[in-house]
């Protein structure tokens, strides 16, 4: 349980019984629940103060929608991982959550074991989705990639990635988790994370969603 005890988690949901139950399940599994919140503005304030590693977030919140909460917090702290836990499996809700910076999307019909596994994987940087939703998100990446890319004035001087960074980027675009990439390249999970962070910095991107789009636009997922 050592890796779990180091993980700080915050739970945001407007239903007190559900929120308390999720927080209790996480605490019993060894996670440190640093805060909970029942509405959007409260979620933003408490997350900024508690600095969780993973935010377990409902979308339907009073005061400020969950997607806006996600956008504000990830914008202020790109290292924050957000796992949406929602009753809605609507495609528009899933895509809006991902575009706002969510790392994963789990339906509330998931079991406790699935939730705990999703939080662990989200903390590790993996994109975690309820079965059936991952294909939807990847399809949206591909659709976006067919649209003209916005003009970038410094395109001629585009940042140069190392061979290893390009290799990692290609595998991220193919949908592999950080753990799978580490195994494929025979490097540590931490090294994979470092390569991704370096690549994000060089390309001036903010999260994995933008990184995958960048890679697909350049056909790296098909190499």
UniProtKB/TrEMBL annotation:
Limits of the Response regulatory domain: 8-123
Keywords, in A-Z order: DNA-binding, Phosphoprotein
Q: Which CDD domains match?
A: LuxR_C_like, REC_NarL-like
Q: Name one GO molecular function term.
A: DNA binding
Q: Does Thylakoid count among this protein's keywords?
A: no
Top-rank lineage group of the source organism: Bacteria
Q: Does the keyword Nucleotide-binding apply?
A: no
User: This chain belongs to which protein, by name?
Assistant: DNA-binding response regulator
């Amino acid at each position: 349980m050592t890796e779990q005890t180091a993980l700080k988690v915050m739970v945001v949901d407007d239903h007190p019984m559900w929120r308390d139950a999720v927080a209790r399940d996480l605490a019993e599994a060894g996670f440190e629940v640093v805060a909970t919140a029942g509405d959007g503005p409260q979620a933003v304030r408490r997350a900024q103060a508690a600095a969780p590693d993973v935010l377990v977030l409902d979308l339907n919140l009073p005061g400020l929608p969950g997607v806006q909460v996600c956008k504000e917090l990830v914008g202020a702290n790109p290292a924050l991982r957000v796992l949406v836990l929602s009753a809605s499996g609507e495609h528009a809700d899933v895509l809006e959550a991902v575009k706002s910076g969510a790392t994963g999307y789990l339906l509330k019909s998931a079991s406790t074991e699935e939730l705990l596994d999703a939080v662990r994987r989200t903390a590790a940087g993996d994109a975690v989705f309820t079965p059936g939703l991952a294909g939807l998100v990847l399809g949206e990446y591909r659709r976006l990639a067919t649209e003209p890319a916005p003009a970038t004035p410094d395109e001629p001087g585009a940042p140069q990635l190392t061979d290893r960074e390009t290799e990692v980027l290609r595998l991220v675009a193919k949908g592999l988790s950080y753990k799978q990439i580490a195994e494929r390249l025979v490097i540590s999970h931490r090294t994979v994370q470092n390569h991704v962070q370096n690549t994000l910095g060089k390309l001036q991107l903010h999260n994995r969603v933008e990184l995958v789009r960048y890679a697909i636009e350049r056909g790296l997922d098909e190499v």
